[in-house]
Amino acid sequence: MQDITDEAQLCVSELVSNVITHVGHGTPATLAVSVRGTHLRIEVHDPDTRALPVLRDPSTESLEGRGMALVDAVADRWGVLLRPDRRVTWCELATKLTAPNGHVEAPSVMRAEALLSLYAAATPLSCRTGVGRLTSAVAEETVIAAITDFLHWLQAHGCDADDMLDRAQMRFEAEALPYVKGHEASPG
After folding, report:
1. 46, 47, 119, 159: which has the fewest C-beta neighbours closer than 10 Å?
2. Do 17 and 83 lie in a common domain?
């Protein structure tokens, strides 16, 4: 969601500044960020249930009163929820996510998602005889396609694909090293 980082930072800054300015320094507040459907939702919870933030039309000479106007200009929607013990000021920003479950609906991401589900549910199978084997070339291409899909999935979820590749390589080397040494030491 790097395309809305600046807008999200501005909204967080303005919503938190409102608490500091209008409720007071040191006021306990909570920031909550979540994805709701295809929107990023930003909430600031504070204990002041007496006053609601208002959208004012600040004059050009005024040094105050622009916070909610900025949020209104940047966010797709915003509002205030009054709870018995707190006030929740929130806004939502549209993302490039195309599915309500918070995922990008690209074929590569969907395949990686399915693979992750299968991988998590899989239990080790004993070797079975009579099962056809993939040729080395087909197996290699399948693995490369799966790795590529996982990289797309990682990127779609805001992860650094290069960092993940480096971490996977380190884990592979750490896990493969004893096997390779043991394999080399065994007689032909």
Report:
1. 119
2. yes
